[in-house]
Amino acid sequence: MWERTLQDLIRGLRANKADESKFIAKAIEEIRQEVKSDDMVLKSGAILKLTYLDMMGYDMSWASFHVVEVMSSPKLHLKSVGYLAATQSFDQDTDVLMLTTNLLKKDLTSSPTDIALTLNGISHILTPDLARDLSPELIKMLTHSRPDIRKRAVLVLYKVVSMYPEVSSQVISRLKDKLEDPDSGVIAATVNVLCELTRHNPENYLALAPPLFHLMTTSSNNWMLIKIIKLFGTLTPYEPRLVKKLQPPITDLISTTPAISLLYECVHTCIIGGMLQGSSGDSLARTCVSKLAGFIQDSDQNLKYIALLAMVKIVPSHPHLVAQYQDTILASVSDQDISIRMRALDLVSAMVDETNLQSIVQQLLSHLVTDTSTSTLPTAAQSLAHHTVPTSPQSAKPSFPSPSASPAYRLTLSQRILQMCSQNTYENVTNFEWYLSVLVDLAHIANVDIGAQIRDQMVDVVGRVKAARRYAVKLMFTLLSEDAILRNAPEEGSCSEVLWAAAFICGEYCSELVDPQKLLPLILQPEVVNLSPDIIAVYIQAATKVFGFWATEVAQRWTDDDLHEVKGIVQMIIERVGPFVSSPHIEVQERAANTLQLFSFILADLNAYRPRMTENALDESSASFAESTFSAEPFFPKSLFLIHPLFSSYELNPVAQYAQESVPVPEGLDLDAWIVPPRLEPMENGDKKEGGKGKKKQQEENGNGYNEDELVTLTPQEAEVETEEERVERERRRAERLERLRDDPYYIMDKIPRNHLRSSSYQSSPEPFYIDRVGEMPTGAISAHVSGSSPSSRRSTPVPGSPSPVPTRLSSGLSSSISSFPQYEVTDEDSHPNTPSTPEPVKVQSKKKKMTGSGSGSGKKKRTKTAAAVLSS
Amino acid sequence: MIHAVLIFNTSGVPRLTKFYTPVHLSVQTLVQKIFSLVYSRPAGLCNFLDAPELEPYLAQNEEGERWRVVYRSYATLYFVFVIDGAESELGILDLIQVFVESLDRAFENVCELDLVHHILAEIIQGGLVLETNVDEIDNAVQVTAKLRKDSYAASNPLALGGGLAPRGSNLQTPLGWLTGKLTGVGAR
């Protein structure tokens, strides 16, 4: 092993560019040896190399202890390496920091250079504990004879206060003194710290206003003035009287200072400090806005940027002033610099109103359009362009694409358009037909993943704005008949989600369509399968609705010539929906199955339908019978009226946000009452497990489930009626079963007192509202709560008397017992030896599980017998 | 306050990364993200980096105000400061200039690779500005550098050079290592 210095390491890195990771792995291996050395020089050299590598992204937390060793070196040149490494690599969780308290205390009493080094280091590595332990020493440093130490001590106190707020009042009063320090650097540092502290809780610092005000009016240090002005911007909202006091000097500064940064801060503080209110503020506001407008028009892009930043803040209070510069601001939205575009976008969103919404949105859309025309060209052209770029002369410099080409920017832009239009429930939209067409345009040109938001907007608009429905349906019909989006649906940025909205709107409001049946071939075309399942489900549903509406229309003006067309369409629907019945997506499958059944029924009816004429002719022989039927039968196939009422009974309206909450609880309904009371003591004692089984079975056999439950709850009340014989019989059966199950690994014998079980069951289902919440909780959370070991345990945790059987039904309904059963064995057997005395929820469940699985037959029989016995008695 | 100071070259290799506030994501990812965005910006744009791609990386306060990325490029180096609303945007641009001038002054007579850190420590401490006067900074840098050198010499009486570079007779200076050339200080 030969020692390399950091220079050697860097040289080596350059020489080994091709195999950098290997070289570094080797270097770190050497360093691992070197840090263990007793030679402090070697050790610190190693730490320095590590610090460099840490910057390159290689972990050095393993060397923390060695860093502390180097920090403790008495030699400055080594110590500073240690402190540097600490500031670079330590964080709050670095455990060796606990060991540093005394070292830091000692270094704080050393030479001024050491103290400076230490203070700088402490600013990085301070923890709450260190802050508590070191605060006396650090506060003492404020009176050090050397200003450079005082300066650092002031700054370190910011960290102390944020880590250990208990000292803040003490620190604040000391800092106030420091505002009168003889050294201007110390004063500036104090202002810096106060500016930070004030942002967290301004009320505590109002007392500092007078000295700060004095400084503001006397100092000429622009760095410090900026901070003081900023500080006042935070304070004034908490002390309105400051406004009056500050207005004159700040107005003065605005008109006199040559420093643009200071001027800008003054303007900014006027805005955020609420100094532009009232009559006196008006002229100041005008000055501010005109200054900012000047910045926006300045050739310096930086001024443009910050001016936009400040303008956003003044818009809410003085929109009319900003509106004067609308054109300039709108031009900034098209700036080549994305930073400026983003800020201009902020500003534009803030200043949008009824009058300018359309023009602004139109302009933003045009950004998306122009660029789409190039970026959606065949990808071949794009890749060609890619190939040509490197060979061109400027290949050394990267080509700078227009910001509009960046997907992230396009997404932001699209979101902004939606947000501008929809804010405060479409406050600024005057023409919803326009907005709907904007939404459709956006879906076409956005080329980013914004489809879901557009979809929601479409549905929302159409739901809320009745007057727009006719237009919407027409527009959506067009959307559904275009195949571009459908074809591109699987691609990212295709916005195919809008088809969801289109299908829903056309289906729900199909009465607005002239020829609704023309929609059916569109939404049932075979390519629909490319869409995502939730859209397919809506398509199927829409098809049903559209048919339902059209069928009633046809029925009302029925002529027997229609039969052919109707039959054709019904057959088409059956044929197209058919394949979806086997869809792997449950929602699609269910809707398809429903639809299929309904339409099979209709088709059967249509097939059975005999046109009136024929019927009359045929039925002449049995005229009396025919007459009676004829008068009851309509003259069109009845089934045409089958579907429409399913959808049209209620109008679909937007629901107010708090509608559900304001529904009163009906009189006589006690939400806290037990639906199924927990079983009482005798039954509990009598047979705990049977209860569980009964529950399980109840879910399996929907039919007599309720009886079972009644039995469970009724039993105790009827206990007196239970004859001695029956009791003996029951006891005997119980003993028998216990005997039988003794060696069954899935049963835990009741060595644990009963109330264990009971208490656990009470815990899992104490009150109705808790169970309500169960329904909403993610599965993981509950199962983790009940039992960490078995993921599906919740499903099989039907607590006796639990009024929420849904989870259980799930498990048995999905007939999961076979497939999931082996898992149970495994988890359970695992838990047996490890946790012999754990209380029982898991095990009780597994028993039940077992019963549903292989042993369910006997259990069920027994249960039924008991039921019969009790009921008969 | 200032949350981070980064220097990287035009290849994206970090020359200095200093975080005053811990970030809860990979520092490398952040540096690379900032680099790729800064590097793709042509000259003449503003010195503030705003991009939708960057937003998830930057912390946000209660009022929705995000950290801001301010950068300047000098020759082959990018100087990037990540700040919050307590700092003046334009002031930070000046501070970067102060930093670069201080580095430039130290150019002549030092050869410690960690010097950049030491110079930064004379300007910023714990994310707060310590000193903005280039002369003061330079003075402090010189004094502590000399003390480190003395300390080194005292424990290595036979060494010729200074600092931690015993075999550094014809070493590059730190700024040579840093940038190759730092003559174009006026550059953006």
Automatic annotation (TrEMBL), chain A:
Keywords: Golgi apparatus, Membrane, Protein transport, Repeat, Transport
Region (Disordered): 383-403, 677-733, 758-873
Biased composition (Low complexity): 392-403, 786-799, 807-820
GO CC aspect terms: AP-3 adaptor complex; endosome membrane; Golgi apparatus
Listed Basic and acidic residues bias regions: 681-700
BP terms from Gene Ontology: Golgi to vacuole transport; protein targeting to vacuole
Cited InterPro entries: AP3_complex_dsu, ARM-like, ARM-type_fold, Clathrin/coatomer_adapt-like_N
SUPFAM superfamilies found in the cross-reference section: ARM repeat
Location in or out of the cell: Endomembrane system; Golgi apparatus
Major subcellular site: membrane
Keyword Repeat: yes
Residue ranges of every copy of the Clathrin/coatomer adaptor adaptin-like N-terminal domain listed in the record: 20-600
Pfam families: Adaptin_N
Family (UniProt): Belongs to the adaptor complexes large subunit family.
Its job: Part of the AP-3 complex, an adaptor-related complex which is not clathrin-associated. The complex is associated with the Golgi region as well as more peripheral structures. It facilitates the budding of vesicles from the Golgi membrane.
Subunit structure, as described in the record: Adaptor protein complex 3 (AP-3) is a heterotetramer.
Protein name as annotated: AP-3 complex subunit delta
Automatic annotation (TrEMBL), chain B:
Lineage: superkingdom: Eukaryota
Subcellular location, principal: membrane
Database matches in SUPFAM superfamilies: SNARE-like (SSF64356)
Similarity remark: Belongs to the adaptor complexes small subunit family.
Keywords: Membrane, Protein transport, Transport
Natural source organism: Gymnopus androsaceus JB14
Cross-referenced Pfam families: Clat_adaptor_s
Domain AP complex mu/sigma subunit: 1-145
Protein name: Adaptor protein complex sigma subunit
InterPro entries with a match to the protein in the record: AP_complex_ssu, AP_mu_sigma_su, Clathrin_sm-chain_CS, Longin-like_dom_sf
Biological-process GO terms, alphabetical: intracellular protein transport; vesicle-mediated transport
Subcellular location, record wording: Endomembrane system
GO cellular component, one term: endomembrane system
